[in-house]
Amino acid sequence: MRKNSIKNTRINAEVQKELSNIIRGEIKDPRIHPMTSVMAVEVAPDLKTCKAFISVLGSEESKKSTISGLKSAEGYIRRQLAKNLNLRNTPEIRFILDESIEYGVNMSKLIDDVIEHDHLRSGEEEAADANEE
């Protein structure tokens, strides 16, 4: 089975949906931040392993505690996935902190700062040109 086959894509989407439901509604661990999202899931073609990319809106401390809470609840999450999904194998889950949203926000802020600086600079040049004339 190819990595990006239609079946694998469907399995990724289904696992992501179920994983989101389990994290949001069934886990009561206080270490897991309420603003936790499953951004993407990559299930291996042999269904043995799964990478779950997790985004946490909060401080670095809350991100670390959320990932450690999810790792400690991995067995429970895997059992719930096995119950809810009809798969030949229930994959072993690896939780990976996804910071792409924060990176994107930071890049957008940097671009806005450069544009603002450029506008201020061009405004100063226009004022200097007007004074020379």
Automatic annotation (TrEMBL):
SUPFAM superfamilies reported in the protein's UniProt record: Ribosome-binding factor A, RbfA
Protein's cellular compartments: Cytoplasm
GO cellular component, one term: cytosol
Gene3D superfamilies in the record: 3.30.300.20
Alphabetical list of Pfam families matching this protein: RBFA
GO molecular function, one term: ribosomal small subunit binding
Subunit structure: Monomer. Binds 30S ribosomal subunits, but not 50S ribosomal subunits or 70S ribosomes.
Protein family according to the UniProt entry: Belongs to the RbfA family.
Record's protein name: Ribosome-binding factor A
Native source species: Blautia segnis
Gene name for this UniProt entry: rbfA
